[in-house]
Amino acid sequence: MENDQDNRGALPDGGGFSGVKPDALSRKSRGFSFLLELSRLLSRKDLDDAEVLSRVSDLAPTGLARPEHAMVRLLVNGCIHGRPDFPAGAKTIESPVMVSGHCVGSLDAAYPGETPEGFSVEEKSLMAETAHRISSFVERSFLQSARKKGMAANDLLTDFFSCILNPSPIGELTLKALEISKILTGSPNGFVGFLDPETGYMVCPTMPAAKSVQGEGPGDHMVFKKFSGLWGFVLKNRRALMENCPEKHPSSVGVPAGHINVRRFLGVPSVIDGSIVGMIALTNKPSDYTDSDLKIISRVADLLALAISRVRVADALNQSNVLLESRVRERTRQLTDEMEARSRAEEDLRRSKEMFQAVFDGISDPLLMLGSDMSVLMLNRAAAEYYRLRNPERSLGKACFRTLGGASAPCPECGILSAVEQGQAVTIERKGFKDPDRYEQATVYPIKNFATASSASIIHIRDVTESKAVQRHLVQSEKLASLGYLISGIAHEINNPNNFITFNIPILREYIQSVLPVLDEHAEKAGDFNACGMPYQEFREDLFKILDNIEYGSYRINSIVSNLRAFSRKREQAEPKWVDVAEVVENALAICRIKLSHSVKTLQVSVPEDLPRLKTDPDMLAQIIINFMVNAAQAADKRDSWVSLGVRLDERDQGLLVIEVADNGCGMDEATKERIFDPFFTTRRAGEGTGLGLSMSHHLAATLGGRIEVESKPGEGSSFRLYLHL
Question: Could you tell me the pTM of the whole model?
Fold first, then answer.
């Protein structure tokens, strides 16, 4: 009987179908085939998300008991794939599509009303499992998109942040803010403006004037004296407005003749200390504006408010200084008022610095601001965590190399001073400040304050460990390619004379066999005699030993040349195909099991039965496993030696297959581990190996799109892990 429990995917156990009725067996086989095809479809990289979901909706009926009657509709994020509606009276089931605990759609299936039976328990379970796999696919797509968008946003905000730190006119800042906002949201149109503090008019440097404007103000900018429409609603109500159907909003007044149509609208005010100083307006994004768009543009608006405030505060300070110098004798009675104004300006600066620090902390990458003497002026939370500072405020005012690195002098690779001297950004790569096993990229952005002739710099730090690993793999591949050409020529030159030796050994053996009866007869008649300074019988035995040694030496030369040729020949990868990993492992063990039995006391193999199939070149994969196993056998040096072979899915990334070979052999020190993938490097005695096995494995792993990681301790053993993408 079938199991009616609510398991995802009504699939048979690995033990087979014994005891299952034929119709149940057919349903289970159909369900298994459907889920297998679904997994392949969801893992395809050559299709975009919309195409994958559309094909899933077309595939889903084939998993049901009556596919010719079944109707399926897939709804994800407002997009419908498959049949848009079901006929009245249809028997339906609905399986939610969940992402991070939130429902983003559903997988709906239906049979027409005239169908006598509804959905079985197996069909409901199959649709639930299908919805669960779709949820994983959608969530993975969301995470990848969010990660890329977050990194791009951080780069743009950091760039805008650098513009704020350098004195710039408000007009240039609004142009930069509009450029960044369009990129962050994908909006083709928009404008950024600021409120003139004297007139209260909206000045838009990003919008050229269509006609002359009466009154004071820039003649080449559009100036709005009255606030109306959607953007006027933002300024009047002092709050953001996101409207994907702007024509339905009460404040919508249409557009003038010749103006672009507004299909979607996002407006965010720039507010500082409770006062609006400007706004950002964006229109006509190809898709609807979202809360994420509102959030990121709000950050840009805060930065814009901070920038405008800094410019105005600086202008106010300059004006105050001019007034103090020119009217000090004439306006002594107003000295108190001027001092109060200056005090207010300093208070504004203090508040601006606090907001500046808040924005600084909002950037996820580590950031530092250093003075001209390399003292720490400011750092964000990410930098405090990166440098493991319990009390970050204690580091302020101290030299960076002393308070962060515990050194008495600047780091040898430090590029801060050269960046300040050259007046342009400098990027350096170095080992991690706190974790030497990782690599980081530090970019120094110099900041020059021409008013005070002082200098500062912003340090932006990124982890580039993975990109460095890719670069090393490329360099290794280039070395192997160059070495291959050299080896191919050497192997050819060695093989030619060795062929003469190999060809003539049988002839020489035949000649000797022909001469020996004559010598034997002579020895029998004349008695034992000396040949080459030794008795004839000893000479006779030694002659064949020498001949055998020559033949073995020629065989060794031929074997080494064959290995050299195999190594130098760039193997073409066969067409990848879906393989059973357990079968590949078993084939590899069959080849090297005898070698292992002679060297290792215990062999442990762990291959789960429910492993997913892998699309790869089985011959290359088997060769890597064989090389790992032979290497482990050669490292055995204990009476209770053991070698283990395990296959599993990576704990952190279920999309990675891990094949691990471990042993309790002699192990390696760090110097040896650094060279194990170099061609011809070996720790074995002469004649026991060519040093090409691991180098070839490294090349094959790269060809398969995977990587190899090694852990080893001298005297304790080693572990080789091959990572492959499913």
Answer: 0.33
